[in-house]
């Protein structure tokens, strides 16, 4: 993408009239056409990047939301307790993957903003909060785990 912008600037900075031997070339229309095509490519690729970023963000947000619901399940039975403990384990196991996905999503939205691709502001807001949501869930899982350990110690 950087090369595309660099090329657009290069095209705009070139002389629009050039004389080669006895021929005078008017390059303005060509330069304009190249810039229009480059802009069209940036817009088209930006739309595809936005679709991909939105799908990844919605998937990650859905994962976080489901884990939050699962973690909130009250461990009243042995099966419920096993389920909550498995959820805590899943959260710990997913940490690296989720953090990598969150960084990737953030970078995609940063790129979209950098190229002035039209994106609903709501998506930027969700993107800015998604890493904090994960960190909050991770901390919540640690607190739930600690409270379950404390409860078990009281029983013994």
Give the secondary structure arrangement, pairings included.
Elements (H helix, E strand, L loop, with lengths): L1 H12 L3 E4 L2 E4 L1 H44 L6 H37 L6 H35 L1
Shape: rod-shaped
Biggest sheet statistics: 2 strands, antiparallel
What value does the average pLDDT take?
Answer: 88
Strand content: 5-15%
Number of helices: 4
Strand order of the largest sheet: 1-2
List SSEs in N-to-C order.
HEEHHH
Low-confidence stretches: none
Structural class per helix/strand content? Answer: mainly alpha
How would you describe this structure to a colleague?
Helices cover 82% and strands 5% of the residues. It is mainly α. The protein has a two-stranded antiparallel ribbon. A hairpin with a 2-residue loop joins strand 1 and strand 2. The longest helix has 44 residues. The model has no long low-confidence stretch (mean pLDDT 88).
């Amino acid at each position: 993408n950087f090369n595309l912008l660099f090329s657009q600037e290069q095209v705009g900075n070139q002389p629009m009239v050039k004389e080669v031997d006895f021929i005078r070339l008017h390059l303005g229309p060509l330069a304009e056409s190249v810039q229009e095509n480059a802009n069209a490519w940036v817009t088209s690729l930006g739309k595809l990047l936005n679709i991909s970023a939105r799908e990844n963000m919605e998937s990650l947000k859905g994962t976080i939301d489901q884990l939050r619901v699962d973690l909130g399940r009250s461990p009243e039975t042995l099966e419920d307790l096993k389920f909550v403990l498995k959820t805590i384990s899943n959260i710990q196991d997913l940490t690296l993957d989720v953090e990598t996905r969150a960084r990737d999503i953030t970078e995609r939205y940063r790129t979209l903003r950098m190229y002035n691709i039209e994106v609903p502001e709501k998506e930027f807001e969700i993107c800015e909060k998604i890493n904090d949501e994960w960190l909050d869930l991770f901390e919540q899982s640690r607190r739930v785990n600690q409270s379950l350990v404390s409860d078990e110690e009281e029983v013994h």
